[in-house]
Design brief:
The protein is α+β, with helices and mostly antiparallel strands. The chain has one domain: Beta-lactamase. It contains ten helices and 13 strands. It is globular, with a radius of gyration of 23 Å.
């Protein structure tokens, strides 16, 4: 007869083995198949209330090597290769450009500018053919003055990147020259045929591209080919003035949610509805994202000018695209369509 301790150990081992055998099918079912993911994402893009409100649009989900699913949702929407204004989705592109120029070694000054804490917050808009510096120094943009009231506090404003581009010796460049500089820095990774331009010399908001070309950037971030890929979410700062009034001045995110901001991109980590995704939604509805554990990327691609500059954040195209995009993302993750 086995000693009591040995018998107890044997029973424990047998129980553990039985538990694993019972749980094995459940574990196998926990990870949706690619077909289940794609089907759930497609149904969500077509049928969920949040996505119907954002239609028409093109959507896509992929991994570090290739697109995995996507398509048009709604009538007369854009295609994968449709060029469009991406507004603030330009910020992620500029941050990637800076990280490449700095070979991944960002200075404390770089980080402060890319976290929107520089204090250059009098900026409003550039004229079409102005250079980066001429725009920043114009009367409408406060002559490029520093605003002491916002220095070292998060303030969502294009002036941070406008001024930073001047510090990067890009001040004399107009829209075409700025786009060329960005493309040349990213070309070793994204290719010489990567299409990206600026309608105005605004690093933070003047970009134009397609879902197909922006997805190249996202795959390169996921795969670690771009320096910014290993910096996603680093040193993210509080952005909601209601949560951290001493650290934040203004955010475009609805006051009901609280996200953080990293290097030219958001971290969607609201305690109630956030899933930790990294993103850079644009005012006209172009919404690119990377999942929290950096397995997948996604895009909701559309351009809706109407309502983009309205007073109610909940009515803005960017918010509508985020609401739809997060449902597509959730459906993809668990294989269950949203309604």
């Amino acid at each position: 007869m086995a000693p009591p301790q040995t018998e107890i150990a044997m029973r424990h081992a047998a129980f553990t083995l039985l538990t694993l055998l019972i749980a094995a099918p459940l574990i196998a079912q926990a990870e949706p198949t690619p077909l289940q993911r794609a089907g759930a994402a497609r149904l969500t893009a077509e049928k969920s209330a949040a996505c119907v409100a954002a239609q028409p649009f093109y959507w896509e989900i992929g991994n570090a090597t290739q697109p995995l699913a996507g398509g048009k949702s709604g009538e007369n929407g854009p295609e994968r290769h449709t060029e469009m204004a991406i507004a603030s989705a330009s910020k992620w592109v500029y941050a990637a450009f800076v990280a490449e120029r700095r070979q991944g070694q960002l200075s404390a000054e770089d980080i402060r500018f890319l976290h929107f804490q520089s204090g250059y917050t009098y900026y409003h808009v550039c004229r079409q053919n102005q250079s980066v510096a001429a725009c920043q120094q114009s009367l409408i943009n406060g002559r490029g003055r520093l605003n002491p009231a916002t220095e070292n506090r998060f303030d969502y404003n294009g002036g941070h990147m406008q001024q930073h581009a001047i510090l990067m010796a890009l001040g004399s460049l107009g829209p075409d020259g700025l786009a060329l500089a960005v493309r040349q820095s990213l070309a070793p990774t994204l290719g010489t045929d990567w299409s990206f331009s600026y309608s105005q010399a605004m690093p933070a908001g003047g970009g134009q591209t397609s879902a197909a070309d922006y997805s190249r950037l996202l795959r390169a971030l996921l795969g670690g080919q771009l320096q910014l890929g290993r910096l996603l979410g680093k040193e993210a700062v509080c952005t909601n003035p209601q949560v951290c009034p001493s650290d934040a001045v203004k955010t475009p995110i609805p006051a009901t949610e609280s996200w953080h901001y990293s290097l030219g991109h958001w971290v969607e980590d609201d305690p109630q509805v956030g899933d930790g995704a990294f993103s850079s939604p644009g005012a006209f509805g172009f919404y690119p994202w990377i999942s929290a554990y950096q397995r997948f990327y996604g895009i909701v691609a559309r351009e809706q000018r109407r309502g983009a500059l309205g007073d109610d954040p909940s009515d803005k195209p960017a918010v509508a695209s985020v609401n739809c995009g997060r449902e597509i993302r959730a459906a993809w993750m668990d294989g269950q369509p949203r309604r």
